[in-house]
Write a structure and sequence with these properties.
about 50 residues, two-stranded antiparallel ribbon, binds zinc ion
């Protein structure tokens, strides 16, 4: 049996995702923010390889 590097995450086991939020500043203006975060790769289950 052989394992292949997961094509989705490139073997890292995590994928970078972007979350969009809006923050309200003290003066009442709204500032769109985007936040990058890592989450376990759904394709390989975070292992980094697929069977
Ligand atoms: Zn993966």
């Amino acid at each position: 049996m052989s394992h292949q590097i997961c094509p989705r995450c490139g073997g890292t086991g995590v994928t970078e995702k972007i979350r969009h939020t809006v923050e309200t500043a003290p003066d009442g203006t709204r500032q769109p923010k985007q936040e990058n975060y890592l989450s376990p790769c759904a394709h390989c289950g975070g292992k980094g390889h697929v069977n």
